[in-house]
Design brief:
Aspartate Aminotransferase, domain 2, 2 domains, 16 helices, Aspartate Aminotransferase, domain 1, seven-stranded mixed β-sheet, 42% helix, three-stranded antiparallel β-sheet, alpha/beta, binds pyridoxal-5'-phosphate
């Protein structure tokens, strides 16, 4: 049976070149970068080189890069670190309703510790309005955190505009760029951000390693106590092999970015057009064009996303419903609900995220099987009778329904 991996927003397959670059540091080159003999200096040199490489790609200085244990840790460090270090200046944080839980739950934790938070709404495409950001700023605001692109629906946020507003008001600005780094251009100065999170396993690197960019001069408390690693900002012996893998993966991703953006976007558009044309009562989630090259997210009315996933899995297709973190829970995605999608429709969500190993044949395989699965599930569904037998819903309608956002 064919395997079609369409869950690249959850994680990606590490590249062979990345694994090869890491291997020596999982074996013979095991020195602790903090020690002083040759074996250790070799690890230190490789670590320094990786840091230089990552910094150069992001438009940063090597001293502004902190390697972390994940994208989640980078988000936690940025938000809690800035909040605790700037308490004397204010206690207010601005974020959006559609952030990853690494950001949302960090902010919620701070609320329990006496901070105040504003969760900005989004429009039906999932876009944060920069005017809303500006209106929410008070003289007590110390941090704004808005993601570069959303992991569920793929919408790319107007980060440059928000950064200008943050700068004008003297407020630190963090962006979670875990979905964009290695996929679309990410330059800390062009974006204008003070802090930025990324994660290696989202761009064909290893799991369990991320990085946080912190602009020089940003007041941030250290989040993990212990040794003096990472210029005293993140204790713990470095994940040398992982960091080398991260740098290698980023270097390779950036080298082929232009080509891959175009190729993957074309596959995505083929998938979206195919789904919208062949299946009735389906909505495209997120912005039609201002979206990640690999993201195709839908809501199928009258069915459960979970049932769709199980049926796709039987055909070797890996996808996701909502986000990986919310799969298995009965609550529909907080992102879809924030975009104004009704509860019952949000339950029918399916996210297919494409990447560098996918081909046109993968897309066509899914397009061949998905309409039948949807039809079968709707026929079985207690509220699907109307959908399955009524009007334009048989999958052969001439005009595809418009995405929900365009109907508003
Ligand atoms: C995957 C993801 C994270 C978490 O990164 P991990 O390295 O898996 O902890 C954070 N934010 C976004 C937007 C993500 O997609």
């Amino acid at each position: 049976m064919r395997t079609v991996y369409f869950d690249n927003a959850a994680t990606t397959r590490p590249r062979q070149e990345v694994v090869a670059a890491m291997l020596p540091y999982l074996g013979g080159k095991y020195g602790n970068p903090s020690s002083i003999y040759g074996l250790a200096r070799e690890a230190r040199a490789a670590l320094d080189e990786a840091r230089e490489k990552v910094a150069a790609i992001l438009g940063a200085d090597a001293r502004e890069i902190i390697f972390t244990g994940s994208g989640t840790e980078a988000d936690n460090t940025a938000i809690k670190g800035v909040a605790f270090a700037n308490r004397d200046r204010g206690d207010h944080i601005i974020t959006s309703a559609i952030e990853h839980h690494a950001v949302l739950d960090s902010v919620k934790r701070l609320e329990k510790r006496g901070f105040r938070a504003t969760y900005l709404p989004v429009d039906s495409y999932g876009i944060v309005d920069p005017a809303d950001v500006e209106a929410a700023i008070t003289d007590k605001t110390i941090l704004i955190s808005i993601m570069h692109a959303n992991n569920e629906v793929g919408t790319i946020e107007p980060i440059e505009e928000i950064a200008k507003i943050a700068k004008k008001h003297g407020v630190y600005f963090h962006t979670d760029a875990v979905q964009t780094t290695g996929h679309i251009p990410v330059d800390v100065n062009r974006l204008g951000v003070d802090l930025l999170s990324l994660s290696a396993h989202k761009f064909y690197g290893p799991k369990g390693v991320g990085a946080l960019y912190v602009r020089r001069g940003v007041r941030m408390e250290r989040y993990i106590d212990g040794g003096g690693q990472e210029r005293n900002r993140r204790a713990g012996t470095e994940n040398v092999a992982g960091i080398i893998g991260l740098a290698k993966a980023l270097e390779l991703a950036v080298a082929e970015m232009e080509h891959e953006m175009e190729r993957v976007s074309r596959l995505r558009d083929r998938l979206i057009a195919g789904v919208m044309n062949r299946i009735g009562h389906v909505r495209l989630n997120g912005h039609p064009t201002q979206r990640l090259p690999g993201n195709a997210s839908f809501c199928f009315e009258f069915i459960e996303g979970e049932s769709l996933l199980l049926n796709l899995d039987m055909l070797g297709v890996c996808g996701s419903s909502g986000s990986a973190c919310t799969s298995g829970s009965l609550e529909p995605s907080h992102v879809l609900l924030a975009m104004g999608i009704p509860h019952e429709v949000a339950h029918g969500s399916l996210r297919l995220t494409l990447g560098r190993y996918n081909t046109e044949e993968d897309v066509d395989y899914v397009l061949e099987h998905l309409p039948g699965i949807v039809e079968k599930l709707r026929a079985m569904s207690p509220f699907g009778a109307e959908a399955s037998f009524g009007g334009d819903s048989c999958g052969k309608c001439e005009e595809a329904p418009q995405p929900v956002a365009e109907r508003r």
